[in-house]
Write a structure and sequence with these properties.
The chain is α+β, with helices and mostly antiparallel strands. It contains 13 helices and six strands. The chain has a six-stranded antiparallel beta sheet with strand order 3-2-1-4-6-5, sandwiched between helices. A hairpin with a 4-residue loop joins strand 2 and strand 3. Helix 9 packs across helix 12.
């Protein structure tokens, strides 16, 4: 079975004007986080660093009102706790730090990512080669962010060189030894970009069926699948076939309990959204309010059509990107009715993270 291909990377210089959800920005930065539960003596990362020193750190500038609930200013991303540590509240970055061709993109962007090397962490071990290794590390970090951005609903533009002015260094709280290696500008995808970049992931059941159809007789290819986090075992460590049978029976019962007749709708908004989806999808498609849109068989074109129909049915307008940020009927209904509380991923950092930010 082959893995799903990630969305293709693409540099974007225009961004949606709506505020970016905090959770979306946090999702973008997740690949840079350290894994302390890996079982090793040191935390593991998704990218390599010479000597496991990780001297390249991530800083952000956020425009006022451009990220939901996050005040404008500069921040340090603490990779250990996945938190943004506030450095200079309200700080603004002058577009003049960029080359002329990048200044308008800077003004339009919701945020700026800056990768900063702290040579003192690596020079004692690698001497003159230290800068080479920090550049390699910054490249690996950039690749992770760039490859992850579209799936997050974010557009990124690699702008590379920035002028390390005194104003910029002060805004980031940098000492004289720190070197700004690379920068990226970003913001929410425009509705048009969201429409063209949102490729519907193929359901795992379809992938399995296609694969098995090529290696098994037709009568042996399963008609349905049940996904489990782990296989049930007996006390002797053998596969528990009775438990598997019960799981299959429960899944079958769950599938019929909330079928096309009601879809599991619990309120008027869910029922209206459910009705719009029924009219847009193939007749006989079974789904509930908890199923993901793309798992129902909807592709990006269908989602755009449903988005228009929903605005008419509900009597209100909302961005197309909302459909991708809340990809089930229940989560979309909760969002549109204000029933779901936004997840705040930017809390006050621990004292250790604050101390680190002051000294970097």
């Amino acid at each position: 079975v082959t893995e799903h291909a990630p969305p293709p990377r693409r540099s974007r210089r225009t961004y949606g004007t709506r505020p970016l959800p905090q959770a979306t920005l946090g999702h973008l930065l997740e690949p840079l986080c350290a894994d302390h539960d890996s079982g090793g003596a040191l935390p593991r990362h998704r990218y390599a660093s010479a000597g496991a020193l990780y001297p390249v750190q991530t800083y952000l500038h956020v425009g006022e009102g451009r990220v939901e609930g996050l005040p404008g200013g500069t921040y340090y991303h603490d990779p250990d706790d996945h938190r943004l540590v506030e450095i200079r509240p309200g700080a603004e970055l002058d577009a003049g730090i960029h080359a002329p061709e990048n200044r308008q993109t800077h003004r339009d962007a919701a945020f700026t990512v800056l990768l900063v090397a702290h040579p003192g962490a690596v020079e004692p071990l690698y001497g003159k080669r230290a800068r080479d290794f920090t550049l390699l590390e910054a490249g690996l970090m950039t690749q992770l962010l760039d490859g992850h951005a579209t799936a997050c609903g974010i557009g990124l533009c690699q702008v590379g060189f920035v002028r390390a002015t005194e104003q910029l260094r002060d805004a980031l709280g940098l000492d004289d030894s720190a070197e700004i290696l690379h920068s990226m500008l970003g913001g929410a995808l425009t509705d048009e970009d969201a429409e063209t970049s949102a490729a519907a992931p193929e359901p795992l059941a379809d992938v399995l069926s296609r694969h098995l159809a090529g290696v098994l007789p037709g009568y042996m290819v399963p008609a349905s699948y049940v996904e489990v986090s782990e296989l049930p075992l007996t006390a002797r460590g053998k596969l528990d076939r009775d438990a598997l049978s019960r799981i299959a029976e429960e899944a079958a019962a769950g599938g019929t309990a909330a079928g096309p007749a009601d879809g599991g709708a619990e309120n008027d908004t869910e029922a209206k959204i459910l009705a719009v989806f029924r009219s847009a999808l193939k007749e006989g498609t079974r789904f509930t309010v908890r199923d993901r849109f793309f798992d129902m068989g909807a592709d990006s074109i269908v989602v755009v059509r449903i988005h228009r129909a929903l605005q008419k049915e509900l009597g209100r307008e909302f961005p197309l990107m909302t459909m991708f940020e809340h990809p089930t009927i229940r989560s979309l209904a909760d969002h549109l009715t204000g029933a779901s509380a936004s997840r705040d991923i930017v809390d006050d950092a621990l004292q250790r993270a604050r101390a680190r930010a002051r000294h970097r």
